[in-house]
Amino acid sequence: QVQLVESGGGLVQPGGSLRLSCAASGLTFSSYAMSWYRQGPGKERELVATISRVADITTYADSMKGRFTISRDNAKNTLYLQMTSLKPEDTAVYYCNAKGLFPTHNFWGQGTQVTVSS
Questions:
Q1: Quick one: average pLDDT of 101-112?
Q2: What is the mean pLDDT of residues 99-108?
Q3: Is 8 helix (H, G, I), strand (E, B) or coil?
Q4: What is the largest CA-CA distance in the chain?
Q5: Which of 65, 69, 66 lies closest to 55 in space, CA to CA?
Q6: Is 87 helix (H, G, I), strand (E, B) or coil?
Q7: Which of helix, strand or coil describes residue 68?
Q8: How far apart are CA 62 and CA 113, in angstroms?
Q9: Which residues contact 33 (CB under 8 A, 6 or more apart)?
Q10: Collapsed DSSP state (helix, strand, coil) of residue 112
Q11: pLDDT by residue (tens digit) across 19-75?
Q12: Could you tell me the end-to-end alpha-carbon distance of the chain, in angstroms, rounded to an integer?
């Protein structure tokens, strides 16, 4: 079955950096557009960034532009999110999402907690 496993979360001070990873299995990774979402305390889940199947197109939420970088390695079936200049408001559970061509091809990871605090 499809598995998306996030890692790399943790506690970081404001201004710090983290790199999240999402290891995918059970699917043809290169056939899926990949995204990172996040859900902060008491907030709805929001889109952070998306990368196309062959990594030629990336999009970001406005508040993440210039601070976060999404990338993927199709040879390793892995998605990444490099986060810099982290702020307390970036505190959230970060989720990996894989979206294929069909509506049923929409998969989620279990999430990884990122806490930005001094």
A1: 93
A2: 91
A3: coil
A4: 43
A5: 69
A6: coil
A7: strand
A8: 21
A9: 50, 51, 52, 53, 98, 99, 100
A10: strand
A11: 999 999 999 999 999 999 999 999 999 999 999 988 789 999 998 999 999 999 999
A12: 40
